[in-house]
Design a protein that fits this description.
The structure is a single chain. Helix content is 45%, strand content 21%. The protein is an alpha/beta fold. The protein has one domain: 3-Layer(aba) Sandwich (Rossmann fold), CATH 3.40.50. It comes from Psychroflexus maritimus.
Length: 177
Amino acid sequence: MNIIAFSGSNSSSSINQKLVTFIASRLSAEVEVFQLTEYNLPMYSEDFEKDNGIPIEAYQLKNKIDQAKALIVSVNEHNSMVSAFFKNQMDWLSRIDAQFLAEKKVLLTSTSPGQRGAKSALNFVKDHYFKRFGAAVIEAFSFPSFTTNFDEQKQEITDEILALGFQDVITNFEQQI
């Protein structure tokens, strides 16, 4: 089974990227973890597309998604919304195919240093954005206070209740894919 995992962040120290890497390590299936920054896409504009076409990197990213059966995506949040970087990547993909996530099963997560765990961005992507592109969001999980609730050295969730909820999400996702 081909599962891919990435975060919506372009930060080299992204806690959302750390979260998808952790999730990937907990699944029984093999998961390819990568960073969206590997696909260098310019800021979307109609003028750029008209003058230059769709960048080859957008087609390469779409091809990677096409080959996957399921996705693990962790969205970051800037001012209660998804990051401009993540939206830009999705904008380019939607120019190739408005249903570029059709029939893709998705485990959607988010995290932040704060208590809400980027929940606003998560809910926007789950309730509106990914539905528009045809995704089937199987599970959605907001991980609050990442720096408090996750021990990077031990690679474990330190809050018992959060760890139990996380395991339920992982188990359900694996059963549904």
